[in-house]
Amino acid sequence: MPDFWLESGYKLLDKTSNGHLGVTDDFLRAYLMRPEMEPVEESCDVERALHDRLMENPQLEVSPSEIDAMADDDIKENYQVVLGFRNHLIASSTIEDCYLSIFKNSSNGQLGKIPPLFLDQLAQLILRNILDNTLYPLWARCGEMLFREQKISVQDEAVMAADADTLDLQLSGKAPAGLEGGVTKNKDGIKEIELDVLSEDNAELYWERSDNFDTVVDLRVWGQANTALCRVMEKWVNHFYQVPVQIQPLEEVQEEKWIWHIGLDSEASALLNDLYNGNDVTDERNQRLVSLFRMEIKDETLIKPEIAGRPIYLGMAMTPDNLLRLKPQNLLVNLPLAASA
Questions:
Q1: Helix (H, G, I), strand (E, B) or coil at 39
Q2: What residue ranges of the chain have pLDDT lower than 50?
Q3: Strands (E), the chain
Q4: Can you tell me the distance from the alpha carbon of 22 to that of 16, in angstroms, rounded to the nearest whole number?
Q5: Considering the chain, what is the average pLDDT of its residues?
Q6: For the purposes of burial, counting CB atoms within 10 Å of the CB of 2, is it exposed (0-12), middle (13-18) or buried (19 or more)?
Q7: End-to-end CA distance of the chain
Q8: How far apart are CA 330 and CA 315, in angstroms?
Q9: Each residue of 200-253: pLDDT tens digit?
Q10: What is d(CA 278, CA 304) in angstroms, rounded to the nearest whole number?
Q11: What are the strands of the beta sheet with 260-263, ordered from one edge?
Q12: pLDDT given at position 155
C-alpha cells in the first residue's frame, strides 16, 4: 500500500483496539529532540541533566523548581510549553482524545498555551490514521488542507489551492533542490511558480512527494478535488464520533432560512453568520467564499431533534490576501449531535 507523510511521526505511535492512536515514549521523545529543546553549547548543566533524564524516561514528572533552576529564560519557557503539552498527551488515552479535549475544553485557557504547530501536527497524525491504506492520492492531498494553510488563486472557473508555506519558500529562493516546481518571471517581471496540478490522471505522483507539499488541487465546485475533500471530511467526523455523514458540494444555499451552518474557518464562520442574520455582506466578501457543502446525517436519532431532517451547511472562505486556513475542529465541536450520540 502507498505510504505517505513519512515525517509526521505516525510510525512512532501505537494503534489502540478502537483504531485510534496511542501515545508512546518514542513519540514523546520526538518533541524533546526538536531544535528548541535539544541542548546547545551554551546550555547550563541543569538543562543538560534534565534533558538526559527525559530522554531516558519521557514521562518523567518534572517539578516547576527544576525548570526555574535553568539559566536561560527562553529555554524555561520552551520547557513549560512542551512539558505542558506532553502532560496533556499522557493524560489522554489517545491522540484523538487529546485533540478533541483541547478544543472542547478551550475555555479553560489550555488552548492558548499550545503552539498552533502542535495542533496541526495532531491533526496530520489523525488524518494519516484515517487515510491509512487509502488508494486515492487526491484524498491525501485534500487532507493536507486540514492542517496546512493554502493559497488560493482563482483562474476563470478554476479555484487553485497551493500550499502557502511551499509557495513562500519557492519565492524566497531558499527551496531545497528536491522540491518540485520552479520560479519564473512573466512578461511584466512578476515571479510565477509552476507546480503540478493533481487530477485523477496524474495523482499517483503524489505518493513519492507527499512530504514536499508541492502539488496543487482545483477546488471548483464539481471538480475531483472538491469531491475528494468531501470524502475526507466524512471520514474525519465518523472517525471521532462513529456517526456516518454524507457531504456533497453545493453551488448555493437555496433555503431562505436555514437551521444550522458550520464555518470551516474563521472567515467562513463570520460570513455565514452575517448571511444567516440578514446582515449586509459586500460583493468582495461573497467572492471570497471558496466552497459550500451540504451535510446530512441519515440517522436522525444522532442529532438534535430540531435539526432532524434538515441539512447542515458548511462553508470555507479565504482571507482578503487569498489564504485559506481551515479549522477541522469546527466540524467536531460545532456539530449538532444529540446528547445521547
A1: coil
A2: 185-188
A3: 14-15, 21-22, 150-155, 158-163, 182-185, 191-194, 196-197, 215-218, 246-250, 260-263, 289-296, 312-317, 323-324
A4: 6
A5: 92
A6: middle
A7: 34
A8: 11
A9: 899 999 999 999 999 999 999 999 999 999 999 999 999 999 999 999 999 999
A10: 24
A11: 246-250, 289-296, 312-317, 260-263
A12: 86
